[in-house]
Amino acid sequence: MQEKPILYINLSKDKLRRANMEAEFLRLNLKAQRLEAVWWADLSAEKMRGLYSIALNKKQYYKPLSNGEKGCYGSHIEAWKMLLASEAQALVVLEDDICLKDDFSKILTAIDSVDIEWDMIKLIGREGNEKIASSIYLTDGYEIVDYKKVPSCTTGYIISRTGAEKLIRSRIPFGRPVDIDLRFWWENDLKIFGVHPAAIILADSSADSSIWTVKNKNTWIERIKKFKMKFHLELKNFFKKL
Q1: 3-class secondary structure, 29
Q2: Cβ neighbours of residue 235 under 8 Å, at least 6 residues apart?
Q3: Which of 20, 74, 92, 167 is the least buried, fewest Cβ under 10 Å from its Cβ?
Q4: What is the pTM assigned to this prediction?
């Protein structure tokens, strides 16, 4: 029996991605709800100001966010709000450029028996060797891991009500991209773990972004600011993980 609601984020124009996702859920006999992705340019100026802070962006990040990055963050915020508006205790949030492993349902069920306090469990992390601080058994072939450094991927994760409450309370308005913001987990005491190996895999369509245009090269000032941000992230993360 499926216990955690599943939500996938998808733009109306991405009909092929939607069809692929629906085929994945059908293959594993899972029910999922589609969430219309936020297209930033369609928002009112008031809504934009309420979600994204230019001042915060200048303080936290090395360059202004693109409309695609803003829309992506806005989409995840909508997912968190939907969880809090429901009676569910946790929600599976997926982007639409993934494939589900055959063990996906088994992994979701096994997470209910994990004896740790968590706000978010990532279903995919870095490719290759993940940097893991510790791990506990989840189910045959899979572990729940505590990351040495939280990976930036937001392609798929499970979020608890407590996690959604923390993020809604502390991340609106936002100044960083959502995947980078989560790496600063200590700012709102987010307890982030992951499934290892990953419970989902990136589809071929992940190479072609629906929301990002060609990225311009960083200016020398942006490169310096990025270095400072990464240094701050590494330093803070190191001491917080001690």
Answers
A1: coil
A2: none
A3: 20
A4: 0.93
